[in-house]
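FIELD: query
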Amino acid sequence: MPDRQIYDRPLSERPRLVKLGVKAGQKISVLGIEEAGFAGELEDAGADVSLRLRRDSDILFYAAESFRDLERIAELRGYVVSNGAIWVIRRKGKDAPFKETDVIMAGLVAKMVDNKIAAFSETHAAMRLVIRLVDR
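FIELD: result
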């Protein structure tokens, strides 16, 4: 568990995995994340990490690079536990292939809602989608 002092820091100064809600013992799937060392960072935090899609994941980190990738969110929803999350990782900036609102719409189609946004890296943003309470 992270040192409680981490939570006393401003959000912008907290470690990435704290912002993303990663905890020891969580079952995490990582799909398409190209960043070197990300899986190791998750393992160092005590997570059970798979670089393949697997059922009953607490968190699924999913790199989306196209609208077709966004369409897949509905399928991926079935791989997370009812109170789990899909973090959609997307490029940010003017050259990004789609906007935050496109991720939100893809989530709604999949009966999921967004409830958190965080910086993933200098070039990528992360949006957390969770299953709607009415559908749990």
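FIELD: remark
The chain has a mean pLDDT of 92.
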